[in-house]
Amino acid sequence: MIFLELFWSFFQIGLFSIGGGYAAMPLIQNQVVDIHPWLSMAQFADIMAIAEMTPGPIAINAATFVGIRVAGLAGAVVATVGCVVPSCGIVMALAYVYHRFRGLSVVQGILAAMRPAMVAMIGSAGLSLLIMAVYGQRNLPDDPLSFDGVAVAIFLAAFFVLRRWKPNPIWVMAGSGALGVILYAIL
Amino acid sequence: MKRDKDVYARLFLSTFKLSACTFGGGYVIIPLMRKRFVEDLHWIDEQEMLNLTAIAQSSPGPIAVNASILVGYQVAGAAGALLTVLGTVLPPLVIISIVSLFYQAFRDNAIANMALAGMLCGVAAVVLDVVVNMARSVFRQKRLLPLLIMAASFVALRFFSVNILLIILACALIGAADTWVRGRKGAGT
Questions:
Q1: Would you state the pLDDT for residue A9?
Q2: Mean per-residue pLDDT for A86-110?
Q3: Total domains, chain A
Q4: By residue range, what is the domain housing residue A185?
C-alpha cells in the first residue's frame, strides 16, 4: 500500500534525522532513491536544489515533492504527516523529561557520540551531490578526468565565496544558477 | 475565552508567517522565533527560549518543526503545539505542491536545466561548507573517540553502504557506554 510505504519512509526520516536539514538529506536519499524507486539520483539532486530555494524545512519539502509524485496531493499530506509525527511525540516527551532531569549525562553522552557520525553522513551526502554535479552520475566513473569543467569551476567559486564571506546560502545558490546559465550558454 | 482564541490565532499566524518567509531551515528560523515570541510578544523568556532551542536541536526531526512544537506547547499546551506545527508545515506543503506542478515543464526547459546544473554545484558547495565547519568542531574537542566515530562512519557509509540507522544506533550505544565509563572513572578518583 503506497500510502503506508510513504508514511513509514518519512516517519523514519523524521525519526532519525537529528540536527536539521542537512542531516535529513542522506536519510531522504537512502529512502527515496536507494530503498524505494521513487526518485532518480538526478531528481533527488533537483529536489535538494529546489528545497534550498524555497522556504521550509528540507525534509518537509522533500516529503511534499515525493508524496505528490508518487500518490498525488494525498500522498504529499501523508508523507508530510509521517515526517512530523515522530517530532510531535518525541519532542513533547523530551520537553517534559528535560524539565525534570536537565543535566542527564547519559543523554548528553549519546548525543555527543552521534554528532561525529552526523558529520560523516552529511559529508558523504555532500560528496554524492558533488559527484552528481561534476560527472552527471551517482558514482565516480572509470575515467576520473571526464569531469564537467564548468561544473567544477562553479563549485570552486561557490565554495570559495562561502568560506571567504559567509553569505546567506540563498545568494550562493542563485549566483550558481545564474553562472550556470551564462557559462553553459556560452560554451 | 476570547483571549484564548486570540492566543491560538496569533500562535498559528506567527509560525505560518515565519515558515513562509524562512529560507535555509532551522538555523535561520530559531533566531526569528526568538525575536517574535521573546521580544515582540513576551510570551517566553530569554532563558526558556535557549532551553527550547537546545531541545529542538538535539531532537529528531526538522529543527523548525521541533522548535515550533516546543514554543506552542510552552504557550498553550498540546493544542498550541498542534497549531504551531500546522503553521510551520502548511507553507512548504503548498509551495512545493505548486512547484511540483511545473516541475516537468521546468525540467524540459534548456535554460532551467542550465540553471539547475549550476545550482547543483552551489548546493554541493553549501553542504560541504557546512561539513567543513562541523568537522572542525569535532577536531577541536581534542578527543580520539569522536574522530574515530567520524572516520569509521564515513568509511562504513561510503565504501560499505552500511544502513545509516545502524550507524546511528551503534553511536548511541557507544555514547552511553562512554558516559558510563567516564562516570565510573570520575567516581573512582
A1: 94
A2: 75
A3: 2
A4: 148-187
